[in-house]
């Protein structure tokens, strides 16, 4: 599973950080910073929650091919 974070879409709500602080952070402007793109299976649910909670749709999850 891979994560994608689009800073051009990010609204700075910080829900991704609340869901998975080891996968996401925020920069000085409050925009999403992706800490790890490759998500281990043990973190799958938290990654999906972060994408679900993102109000702007800036966080997305893709199955690795």
TrEMBL record:
<keyword id="KW-0813">Transport</keyword>
<dbReference type="Pfam" id="PF06902">
    <property type="entry name" value="Fer4_19"/>
</dbReference>
<keyword id="KW-0411">Iron-sulfur</keyword>
<dbReference type="InterPro" id="IPR010693">
    <property type="entry name" value="Divergent_4Fe-4S_mono-cluster"/>
</dbReference>
<keyword id="KW-0003">3Fe-4S</keyword>
<keyword id="KW-0249">Electron transport</keyword>
<keyword id="KW-0479">Metal-binding</keyword>
<protein>
    <recommendedName>
        <fullName>Divergent 4Fe-4S mono-cluster domain-containing protein</fullName>
    </recommendedName>
</protein>
<feature type="domain" description="Divergent 4Fe-4S mono-cluster">
    <location>
        <begin position="2"/>
        <end position="62"/>
    </location>
</feature>
<dbReference type="GO" id="GO:0046872">
    <property type="term" value="F:metal ion binding"/>
</dbReference>
<keyword id="KW-0408">Iron</keyword>
<dbReference type="GO" id="GO:0051538">
    <property type="term" value="F:3 iron, 4 sulfur cluster binding"/>
</dbReference>
<dbReference type="InterPro" id="IPR051269">
    <property type="entry name" value="Fe-S_cluster_ET"/>
</dbReference>
